[in-house]
Amino acid sequence: MPTDLTPVIAAATRWLSTAYPPPSGALNRALAQAQAHQAATLAAFLRYPTDLDVQLLHLLAPSGSERLDRLTGSAHYSDDTDTAWRTWVDETVVSWAACLLADPVLAARAHQALTATEHYAQAGHLQRLIHPGPRDTDAAALLRHPDLLEGIAALHRLQLVELLDVKGAGRS
Predict the structure, then answer these.
(1) From what superkingdom does this record's organism come (predicted)?
(2) Residue boundaries of the structural domains of the chain
């Protein structure tokens, strides 16, 4: 049974990058995608902390992007043949990633909590998420905008806050 979260992380990254696009330019696209990837990675590792959790995910399948698409007004085009990735989108992972992108304090706490997962060694460097530089912030202006992310972040923020046991984090 697979214990790899790569398809879920890639789908969440792509969904976030598509829903909250960066300003034009290859560097902006790369920086925004790196931040979305780091947020999706951290969220997925926290959501599925053990290999058994990942195996169950593969057995039961992620939720897909339909509800997220409706909430953000993303349109599905009938001539778009590249939609298979949307089946790998996990709503909770995307919601948690949105929370982490919008709230640096919550992201730092989540990064600390990562040590309690079996995936800690796989997480890699999360610097762009935890301590974004000015260029990172400019490249991900929409991706990190708390008001724009609120509709998605609010879906599962309470679960993340409870998991991290953070007092007063997030919005009411």
Answers:
(1) Bacteria
(2) 6-73+83-164
